[in-house]
Amino acid sequence: MADEITYADFERVDIRVGTIVEASPFPEARKPAFKLLIDFGPDIGIKKSSAQITVHYTPESLVGRQVLGVVNFPPRQIGPVRSEVLTLGFADEAGAIVLAATDKPVPNGQKLM
Fold first, then answer.
1. CATH topology classification for 16-106
2. Which residues contact 76 (CB under 8 A, 6 or more apart)?
C-alpha cells in the first residue's frame, strides 16, 4: 500500500470519464500500443492518448467505450504522438492492462468523486 494522502491530495488528481471516438494502431511506440482520441465533453474536449492495451482490445472494440483518464497531467511526447491524458487501467495476472471504466454510461467529462 502507498503512503497515506489527504483528501486535498486526491482532489488534485482530475480523473474524468470520456468516450473513445477513434482508436488506431501505434506502430512507432516502443511497446505495443494504440493511439486514442477520447471525448471528455464540451469543457475539456477531445484529447489524445497512447495506451498499451493491445492484449485485450482491438481498435474496433474500443470505439464507443467509456474510459477513465487523468486530464491534468502535463502532455507527454511518446514518439510522434503528444499524449494529453493518462488512460487508466489495471494489470491482469499476466501484466496486460484492463481498462478502468464505469459500469453504466455517464456524461462525458464527469469527474470521479
1. OB fold (Dihydrolipoamide Acetyltransferase, E2P) (2.40.50)
2. 82, 83
